[in-house]
Amino acid sequence: MPDPGGPTTAENLSKEAVRFYREQGYVHIPRVLSETEVTAFRAACEEVLEKEGREIWGAGEDEVQVHYVAQAWQKHPELRSLVLHPEISGIALRLAGAPLRVYSSDILVKEPKRTLPTLVHDDETGLPLNELSATLTAWIALTDVPVERGCMSYVPGSHLRAREDRQEHMTSFAEFRDLADVWPDYPWQPRVAVPVRAGDVVFHHCRTVHMAEANTSDSVRMAHGVVYMDADATYRPGVQDGHLSRLSPGDPLEGELFPLVTAGTRQ
Ligand SMILES: O=C(O)CCC(=O)C(=O)O
Ligand SMILES: [Fe+3]
Q: What positions does the entry give for Fe(3+) binding (predicted)?
């Protein structure tokens, strides 16, 4: 895909990038954040990590895939402005081609030398939501992430696979099925590793199969994952839905905890 060279904005995002995303289920958008923004957002993530502590994605302290802080955007004003960043959310809107709301944001850390690969999954399985069609994740790099530091990899076109090859939902982690069980063709699919520089963003559809490498480098990998959901998504009891406990099944997710993303407005 031609690279325009300067910063990528919601306005100058190419039609090729949108087409690539719709066909492949992911797209790497270079230079969305400036160096100054990366420094500020990374500092905010470090403050939240320090203050809130972090949870483990993985089997235990010796088998960490990722350290994370959930709902991070509600824990620091700077991170609220990251999830509502006009270019990131504006690009998400153009890729999705449908109205979106912020669902969640996670700080995603892989410590050097001691983190395992992130397991193969798609995001739909773990989202406690109905009515997903355009829902996507913006994976925002706040450090350089070459392959050796734990970059993301994607199975191109996997968001378009048949329903019988997907685990659409789970109500507990015990239900989680290995992807090769769910999708017998998975082991023969190509995977594309996407190394990124700080300030780049990779977007992926909620059904796109993805994973991340281990961090075998000497320094930390810091990223921020923002899930932008279909604006009319409703609650479907599932995993990691403690923050939705005031909702009943089928309720819309609205209001200030799930802000609508609007093109071109700084909020
Ligand atoms: O950061 C990682 O290693 C995994 C992140 C992920 O799965 C996601 O953002 O959907
Ligand atoms: Fe994911």
A: 121, 123, 210
Q: Which of 210, 216, 226, 228 has the most ligand 1 atoms within 8 A of CB, as the residue to mutate? A: 210
Instruction: Measure Cα distances from 209 to 29, 54, 72, 190, 215 in Å.
Output: 18, 25, 24, 11, 20
**Residue 138 near ligand 1, beta carbon < 6 Å:** no
Collapsing DSSP states into helix, strand and coil, what is residue 250?
Answer: coil
Among 28, 55, 66, name the best residue to mutate to test ligand 1's pocket (greatest count of ligand atoms within 8 A of Cβ).
Answer: 66
ipTM associated with this complex: 0.99
H helices within 53-108, ranges in order?
77-83, 86-96
Global pTM reads 0.96
Q: 15-237 is classed in which CATH architecture?
A: Sandwich (2.60)
1 pLDDT tier (thresholds 50, 70, 90): low
Q: What are the tens digits of pLDDT across the range 84-104? A: 999 999 999 999 999 999 999
pLDDT per position as a tens digit, 63-73: 999 999 999 99
Tokens of 168: 């659409």
Query: Which atom of ligand 1 is closest in space to residue 118's alpha carbon?
Result: 3
Task: Return the residue whose CA atom lies nearest to atom 7 of ligand 1.
Answer: 211
**Distance of alpha carbon 127 from alpha carbon 124, whole angstroms:** 5
Q: Does residue 153's CB lie within 6 angstroms of at least one atom of ligand 1?
A: no
